[in-house]
Amino acid sequence: MPTDVTLRPLELADAPMVYKTWLGVAWDDWRGKTDGCRNCNRRFSYVGKDAFMDGMHARVTRLLSRSTCWAICPASAQAGSDYMIGFLVRDPYEPVLHFVYVIKGGGKGSAQWRGLGIATAAMRAAFPRWPEEPITFTQDTAAMRAIKAKWKAQYNPFLVE
């Protein structure tokens, strides 16, 4: 069931959540791939967390500085509210998705946000010409792999530089 969302431009005050989330998701995914890789002989596991975080922080900073960046807000949020339940970062000119994230929620007394079609609604707003214009994504995470299946998107990590 699709959920109504609104997109607002990311603001400086949103940066801590964006960086913490993006870096955390990327690190968890990287470690899962490199620790569990039987075919790569653990050749990527020598990249320590500090080096990974420094490199990924620089990458995220570059992407945020030259991308269209939206906070995903529930449609019920009051105008001018800084409340956000996720974010989406895309190339401003090409149909390229760098990152999309929806918070889990579900804590005591809080709403559960995943599984409600929020990311799909944000994607439809961010990519109104889909499916006529195929989407490419640049960050290989579990959520992006789900988008690959659902949106028939292509993965190309080289579109970030």
Number of domains: 1
What is the name of the CATH architecture? 3-Layer(aba) Sandwich
- Rounded to an integer, what's the Rg over CA atoms? 16 Å
The top level CATH class name: Alpha Beta
Describe this structure in words.
The chain has 4 helices and 6 strands. The chain is an alpha/beta fold. It has a single domain, classed as Aminopeptidase (3-Layer(aba) Sandwich). The protein has a 6-stranded mixed beta sheet with strand order 1-2-3-4-5-6, sandwiched between helices. The longest helix is centred in the N-terminal third of the chain and has 21 residues.
Looking at this protein, list some descriptive labels.
161 residues, alpha/beta, Aminopeptidase, six-stranded mixed beta sheet, 4 helices, 6 strands, 17% strand
List the helices and strands and how they pair.
Layout: E1 5-9, H1 15-35, H2 49-66, E2 68-74, E3 86-90, E4 96-102, H3 118-126, E5 136-137, H4 142-151, E6 154-155
Parallel strand pairs: 4-5, 5-6
Antiparallel strand pairs: 1-2, 2-3, 3-4
Helix pairs in contact: 1-2
In short:
By secondary structure, the chain is α/β, with parallel strands linked by helices. The chain is 36% helix and 17% strand.
